[in-house]
Amino acid sequence: MRALDMKHPAIAQVEAYWEALRGNRNVPLRSEIDPRGIDQALENAFILERIAPSVARFRLAGMHLNDLMGMEVRGMPVTSLFTGDSRTKLTDTLEHLFEEPAKVLLRLTGEHAAGRGKISGEMLLLPLRSDLGDISRAIGCLVSDGRIGGKSPLRFNISGAEITPLSGVSRGTRSSNVYKAPDEVIAPAQAALQEEAKEYQVAPSNEDVDPNVAKRPAYLRLVHDNT
Q: 3-state secondary structure string, the chain?
């Protein structure tokens, strides 16, 4: 399989790692990602979560992305890194990424702003399966060349896109072999790209509950949210 034509070693490492993980499957699992496999690209790497058609947000992101925006990007939509003119192009690209699925390489040019010179960049997007089997995650890498500077967040225009559909699964179809989890899943490192697990708490037994409270009838409480 031909690797995308890329110059930056961080992007090359992320793609090579993703290709090695997926093997003969079309898409690897999010749970297989081990930060140690992309140790030279961590500050440029990120994880996306698809939350609606054509909409994805950053679940995790390296420091380079925070530097570009001048703020923490975790939780923000990926479109926040792009100019208004390029956001439609990006949302169309996200549909290819998650639905076909496909590998994506975007060529970027930085928006002109005071205190900033010419900036170019590349963004790689590679689909991942969640533990439920749906393609709703992606690992990516963003690199830029040029002085970031300036007081305002740096946003990019999309100057070109290379979209490579992945073989094995057609749009809207499922294959029985692509949802099979590997025999061994690598435990993520206690570092970047690791998401915090929520602590499981056991519900109290009847013996632990105040008997006066336990005898009260159940009810529904209507909460008004005016926000």
A: CCCCCCCCHHHHHHHHHHHHHHCCCCCCEHHHCCHHHHCCCCCCEEEEEEEECCEEEEEEECHHHHHHHCCCCCCCEHHHHECHHHHHHHHHHHHHHHHCCEEEEEEEEECCCCCCCCCEEEEEEEEEECCCCCEEEEEEEEEEECCCCCCCCCCEEEEEEEEEECCCCCCCCCCCCCCCCCCCCCCCCCCCCCCCCCCCCCCCCHHHCCHHHHCCCCCCCCCCCCC
Q: What is the pLDDT of residue 185?
A: 32
pLDDT at residue number 168: 52
pTM: 0.72
Q: Which domains does the chain have, with CATH numbers?
A: 9-165 (3.30.450.20)
**What pLDDT shows up at residue 107?**
97
